Amino acid sequence: MSGPDFVLVAAAITAASCLQASIGFGIGMLAAPVIALVDPTLIPGTIIMLATVVTLLITVLDRTHLDLGGTGWALAGRLPGSALGALLAVRLPSRLLALLIAAVVLAGVVVTAAGWRPRPRRLALLSAGAVSGVMGTATSIGGPPMALVWQRYPGPRLRSNMSAFFLVGSVASLAALWLTGGVDGSTVGTFATLVPAAFAGCVLSRFVNRRLNRERLRWTAIAVSVAGAVTLIVQQFV
């Protein structure tokens, strides 16, 4: 990777880590397109390793706000959702699957923007976790369902729950990649050089979060969810 390419990737990782540390998701959606342009072989391994670092850090920093019960129910839904996502990825045409998922996200955003705020109870958490599992496995964008079901939470609680949820998922994904040869020495080396950029994004988020009250946080999460759905749609026609 050349010097200018590294600076570009590091800047993208800093911005993406700041987003992840502020609203609990978005690092892959923001950084992956940039890294793909520079070196596609670094995806998904490098992104997942960096996401693991960021989610671990935020989970530790905001641990006093963590709802283990709620996160546990969401993870219980994610496991079968991930299996279904893998099955759908094999059985359905990729374009159709991506468009269906984007439509579901946009529908959720519309009703949420209209005032619907689901209560994060067991059934809602199980359902959101399952949908997140399907989306994350099939398209690598799994944040929007959890952001919508946890939109009532204030900043620290939203970040801690989202981070704990995705930390478990990231570790599982890394284990799978390691066993299948998807992570090698080059990937680990690049990850190590980009860790400072991820930490810089987390530090930057501490300043950004001061301006994100509950309503601003909610609308930021909704906007990023829309961006994720639009990204899925655009990817199918580019």
Automatic annotation (TrEMBL):
Entry keyword set: Cell membrane, Membrane, Transmembrane, Transmembrane helix, Transport
Places the protein is found: Cell membrane
Main location: membrane
Membrane-topology descriptor: Multi-pass membrane protein
Record keyword GTP-binding present: no
A Pfam entry, by short name: TauE
TM stretches of this protein: 6-30, 42-61, 97-117, 123-150, 162-181, 187-207
Coiled coil: none
GO cellular component: plasma membrane
Protein family: Belongs to the 4-toluene sulfonate uptake permease (TSUP) (TC 2.A.102) family.
Protein name, per record: Probable membrane transporter protein
Organism: Streptomyces bathyalis
